[in-house]
Amino acid sequence: MSQTSSPPKCQPAIQRQPAHWRDFFALTKPRVMTLVIFTGLCGLLAAPGHIHPVIGFATILCIAVGAGGAAALNQWWEADIDAGMKRTANRPLPAGRMDRDSARDFGMALSGFAVLTMGLAAGWLCGLILLVSIIYYSFVYTVWLKPRTPQNIVIGGGAGAFPPMIGWVAVTGDITLMPVLLFAIIFMWTPPHFWALALFVKTDYAKVGIPMLPVVAGEKVTRRQILIYSVLLLPLTLLPWWLGHTGAVYGWSAAVLSSLFLGFALRVGLRERQGEDDKMKPEKQLFAYSVLYLFVLFGALVADRWVQVLGGSV
Ligand code: HEM
Ligand SMILES: CC(C)=CCC/C(C)=C/CC/C(C)=C/COP(=O)(O)OP(=O)(O)O
């Protein structure tokens, strides 16, 4: 098990020219962060109350910039690990298209800008939650948990669960039960989301000494764990409806989406791999569905709110 206690030592290919803007953009992990930004936007749109459109826009912009900054800091720290994995070897740092200090400075600048602007525009509670999520992802998860424990993403998953809470608090000004439930839903969703992927990129993580669950505990345990979190996710996503915080549009959407999630998870959880040339199709399907699932679930939350507003029930 590797214990990363200092930033990457290897300086890959020599970087002679200033990095291209495309590499700075890539450093923000834009594809992953679309869902982070979307859930933040949904938290903002589903919250009861009104927010000035400019403040609302600034809030989402700051979530995007802050998440991008945290992703850059993650890659600054992990350049040597990324260099050793096929999936990540072509990132700007391991591929030598950018020097490490630029990535660090870029990440710090984005993070600092996002937290300060968030505090000034949407209030310091939102600024504080954003700061916590940036530190959570770039330090608690990346530096501390990831190289040390197979429970890294269970605890570290909290980092990605904050954006809808930020969006919600930007509108209401305080942390009530609903933003906590939205946090809990993403927290519970993260292990099946990531372990489905970890099952089919297991060898990559093993190669660089990252103790992901399938590497340390094996596939069977990982499959069972995926199942446990997916079973718990179903009632958790229904809680906002049962407690009367949302209407039937969200409730039925959650019931259908989470049942399907459980269906995909059951196929992964209860099966055994058929030899080394197994294509891991159910695992790939669960991973792909996990992304679609969260998009649609949070979309349904907003649709539900709009139905209630138009129907005059709030
Ligand atoms: C600690 C928690 C998490 C871990 C370890 C994790 C890990 C990963 C990894 C390794 C990928 C593969 C794609 C890539 O390398 O860029 C991925 C894809 C993705 N993740 Fe996660 N993830 C986590 C949490 C989240 C959260 C909270 C969200 C959004 C709310 C999210 C959204 C996505 C999306 C949208 C993709 C697909 C990107 C694409 O289409 O290429 N992830 N995740
Ligand atoms: C507002 C804010 C700060 C949001 C952060 C959101 C967040 C925690 C997203 C996590 C998503 C992500 C890219 C995980 C990758 O894990 P990894 O870095 O272990 O993946 P890798 O193996 O691809 O590098």
Description:
By secondary structure, this protein is mostly helical. It has two domains: 153 residues, UbiA prenyltransferase (Tetracycline Repressor, domain 2); 139 residues. It is 71% helix and 0% strand. It is flat. The protein starts with 20 loop residues before the first helix and ends with a helix. The mean pLDDT is 94. The protein binds protoporphyrin IX containing FE (HEM) and farnesyl diphosphate. The site of farnesyl diphosphate has 18 residues, from helix 2, helix 3 and helix 6. The site of protoporphyrin IX containing FE has 20 residues, from helix 2, helix 7, helix 9 and helix 14. Its EC number is 2.5.1.141. Belongs to the UbiA prenyltransferase family. Protoheme IX farnesyltransferase subfamily. Keywords: Cell membrane, Heme biosynthesis, Membrane, Transferase, Transmembrane, Transmembrane helix.
Give the helix proportion (percent range).
over 70%
Overall number of strands: 0
**Pattern of helices and strands:** HHHHHHHHHHHHHH
Main pleated-sheet profile: none
Task: Detail the poorly predicted runs.
Answer: none
Bound molecules: protoporphyrin IX containing FE, farnesyl diphosphate
Ends distance: 53 Å
Subcellular location: Cell membrane
InterPro entries: Protohaem_IX_farnesylTrfase, UbiA_prenyltransferase, UbiA_prenylTrfase_CS, UbiA_sf
Transmembrane segments: 32-51, 57-77, 106-139, 165-189, 226-243, 249-266, 286-303
Catalytic activity: heme b + (2E,6E)-farnesyl diphosphate + H2O = Fe(II)-heme o + diphosphate
